[in-house]
Amino acid sequence: MPRLPRTRRGQRRAVQAVMLGCALALTPATWMYAVADDRVRTVADVPARDVAVVFGAGLRSGQPSPYLAHRLDAAAELYRAGKARVVLVTGDNSREEYDEPDAMRTYLVGQGVPDGRIVSDYAGFDTWDSCVRAKKIFGVERAVLVTQGFHVRRAVALCEAAGVESYGVGVDERHNLTWYYGGVREVIAAGKAAADALTRPDPLFLGPTETGVTEALADAP
Fold it and tell me: What gap in Å lies between CA 119 and CA 217, rounded to an integer?
């Protein structure tokens, strides 16, 4: 165990160093809140946008996890309310037996969203990748982002940094162990988010542009 300095000056410097470290650790989270706070809305009051983006949140036995299902429920509600004309589902399909976007599509169709209004991004491996690909690959300029409340500010801040003018709908969840874990994880993830926004790295997979969103919007009422 490290020993505290014996002199008052040493102790004061140690306390100052700890306080500085805490401040630096919280700076990324403060940035996220500053960027996104006035852009977090509900399904009822979010401005209408052509595209709603739903971020993946895991599968269970090939079906959307409860958290992902709640995101998709909110996206379907946005579509029915006329708040979004097309839904872009973005998730992980890095291996053949794991396909988040197709599972998300199937769920949305079951909720009454027409298949032709759903566009799949199979390389949304993290939030930054999904935001950059929405802009560079699918040509999304403005969007409503759908995710849990503890994640929505990071999503908005990163999509704004990627050039997508964004509002976020934070899905409410029961404050159980999973929710608290997600909240703690966001504090840690804020550092990577700030670094991504600053350095703007390319996604793991970029590839050619796709016309799925444009074509879906052209066919949408």
Answer: 10
With a CB cutoff of 8 Å and minimum separation 6, the contacts of 14 are: 4, 5
pTM of the model: 0.84
**Number of residues written out for the chain:** 221
Tens of pLDDT, residue by residue over 53-102, are 999 999 999 999 999 999 999 999 999 999 999 999 999 999 988 999 99
Q: Which two tokens stand for residue 160?
A: 């704004």
Q: Measured between alpha carbons, how far is residue 72 from residues 65, 100, 103, 167, 181 in Å?
A: 10, 12, 11, 16, 21
